[in-house]
Structure formats: C-alpha cells, structure tokens
C-alpha cells in the first residue's frame, strides 16, 4: 500500500509541473515561435538605431580596475603557443573569402595601419560589465583593402582557440562590420593585448554582447551565408548552446 | 441573501490583465534563470566578479544557484533559452502596457477608476484604509463597487511605475539600445545600476503578485475571478449592525 504523504504529493505535483513545463520549453514549435521575438528584437533595434550610432565611450576614470579574463584563458594549440613564444613575429592575419584581393598581414603591418582607440563597456551575456580601452584597426579598412565582394553578407572570424574541443568562431553582418567602432584590437589599456584577453588580435563589436568579441582572431572570412560554417549558427556559442546570433540585447 | 451583481471590469482591461499576468510570470521565471547566471548586483557603469557587489544572492539550499528549478524557465540551467523566453514576452509585456495605458487614458479608466479621489488622498483617509486592511475588513455594498485607496495605489504603482521602469531598465541593459538612446544610461546611472533597478522592480512585481493573490483569496476568489473573466462582480453584502 502506498501512503501518499502531503510532502510526497507536493514533491510529486511539483515534479509533474516541472515535467510539463519542460515539455513546453523543449517543443520545437515553441522554440520556433520564440525565435520570432528574437527577429523582432533585431529588426526593432535596427529600426531605431542609426547604422553608425556609436556605443557609449567612457573616460579613463571609468576603467574597470580589474578587467577579468573570461572564456579561453590560454589556447592549448601548439601552433598558437609557438606564436606566443616568438612574440607573434611570424603570425599572420588572413583576410579571404568573398574578397577580390585576399590579404595576409603581419602584426607589425596591422599596428602600422590607422588605428581607433575607444574606451567602451564589455557586457557579458551573464550580466556583468567591464570597461576597457581598446586600440585597433577598423575592420572597415581591412574589408576595403581586400575589396569585399558586393555579394558578401557576413564576416566570419576564425580563432586560434578550441573551447571545449571545438574551434571558436564568430560572425557579424555588414552593418556591424562597417560600423566605425568595429575594430580588430591589438592593444588593451595601452598595452599589447595579453594572451588572456586574446593576443595578438581580438574583435570589438561594441553594440553587441561579450561572446561576439572573438579573441585570438586568425582569419577574417567574407561569406554570403553562414550555412556550412561549423554548425551553421554563426558562432561557437550559437552552435553549442543556442545563444542568439544577434547579441544586441 | 446574495449581494448585487455589478459590471465592473471592461473587456479590454480583462484581456490585458491576463496577457500581462502571463507575460509577467514568464518574465519573472526566465529572469530568475538569467540572474542565476550572475547572481551579483552592482551600482555604477561597470561591475563584475572582482568589483564590489551590493547584493550577492546565496545559493538555494541543495542547489548550485540562488533560484531552484521549480521557479525558473527553463527548469535546468540554460541561459540561452531563458533569454529567448524573456525577450519574446518582453514584447508582449511592452505592447500590452502601452495599449492598456492608451485605453485607460481614452476610456477614462485611469482618471475615473484608478486615480485617487481628492478625499482619498488625505492622510487620515489612507490611515483608515491601512487599519481596515490590517484587520482584514474590506469594503462592502456600494463602497465595494470601486477600488479602495490602497488598491488604487498598488495598481497605479504597477502600471505607471514598476512596469514602465522594468521595461526602461531592461532596454538600458541592451548594448545596441545604449547606442540608440544613450540618455537611458545617464537616467539610471550606468548599465549595472540599471540592472540593479531592473531586479528591484522585478522584486516589487513579485511582491505585488503575492499580495494581489492573497487579497483575491481573502476577498473571495470565485467572485474576484469571475469579475476578471466576465466583468461581473457581486458586491459583498453589507453587515447589519
């Protein structure tokens, strides 16, 4: 005989409710409907935001006293470690894909290019924020130098780090790629980028969340579609955990 | 003998109420999952693990996070899905409150039913109402046809203060919105302050729901539910002396 105690009934009821809720949450139809909200958010934000509207820039007194390293802290890849050992002397950034003139640039060449310096806020999807100063080459200059094809729609950033065994990558559309604050940063807080923060080059897309700010960028690839690149979601976290590709909110 | 049935709640208000209730519940539950990801709150423009938090939520006994599975959407840790729920229902909440406020203004629901009448605004009157609530004595007869002063203050606080604030502070946390409307950051004193105010508003809404549901139970759940479903409310009988 089963004695249903009040406690058991409560726990059982709660369990059933949880199971029911989880079924709703996991339903593909529900997820599809919810994706409409994501599309509405992106369209709505794009509608009210000028293409070149700048993310707020701060003063040196606003800098976070301790800007934490997040995500990969040191890529385990042997080729990358060899670059670190040689001070990135023979490291190259490749710009290719749908461009008329593919580029291969040394760190010295990138550092000699016109640079933009900006003190901006880095917002992690988890909720925390840190303010840092970034100096780097506007992505727009590289895309122009490489003569971006008019058929290209996205720019993909391939990184040197494997996170949990999968290569890290990210992508942005051309609105963000040609935004004046979108830079490939080689300096942070007036120091060459540390390994923890993505040496020798990391992306800054200042109107989006932290997971878009790809570190250890090795290759910039212009594409017409994100399908067929890794999981097709346009980024490591997008593929792995279903994070929103548009990270403006 | 039963009290008189009166038509108290118009259809648009009833429709809004249920859409709003659903979205507030989903927002609170998915919001708790989002807060689980970083349960520390700060004041100012920045704030992360090395910085001083004004509030650090403790883990729920037996779990790794402050909010246990029973109260979060989804039940197990999934920040990406929680964000998807949160930002879908944010549209329902925001469109709903705008339509409600426009309707409430045009139909004079706001000025006639919700706004405190001149005599209700006196300290004596409010104090009397507080004492009546504390003794769980609620208006009866014709006096129960409208909302009582504390009820009006609670409803006005939700529709004019908490929901607008929770939406604005939510938008202030969006980096894209910071580029579009940078004044929001100045208004709330930075993104992390906005995040803290967002949490405090959510806590206020949760408190409202708790008291609101308690009052519904105390005032007669069948009658109250019927009035919010059909519009018809039975006036509680006046006690004979």
TrEMBL record, chain A:
Coiled coil: none annotated. Gene3D superfamilies: Oxidoreductase, molybdopterin-binding domain. Residues 89-223 form the Oxidoreductase molybdopterin-binding domain. This is Molybdopterin-dependent oxidoreductase. It comes from Novosphingobium olei.
From TrEMBL, chain B:
The chain crosses the membrane at residues 15-35, 85-106, 153-177, 197-219. GO terms for molecular function: electron transfer activity; heme binding; iron ion binding. The keyword Electron transport applies. Its main location: membrane. GO terms for cellular component: plasma membrane. GO terms for biological process: respiratory electron transport chain. It is a multi-pass membrane protein. It is found in: Cell membrane. Belongs to the HupC/HyaC/HydC family. This is Cytochrome b561 bacterial/Ni-hydrogenase domain-containing protein. It comes from Novosphingobium olei.
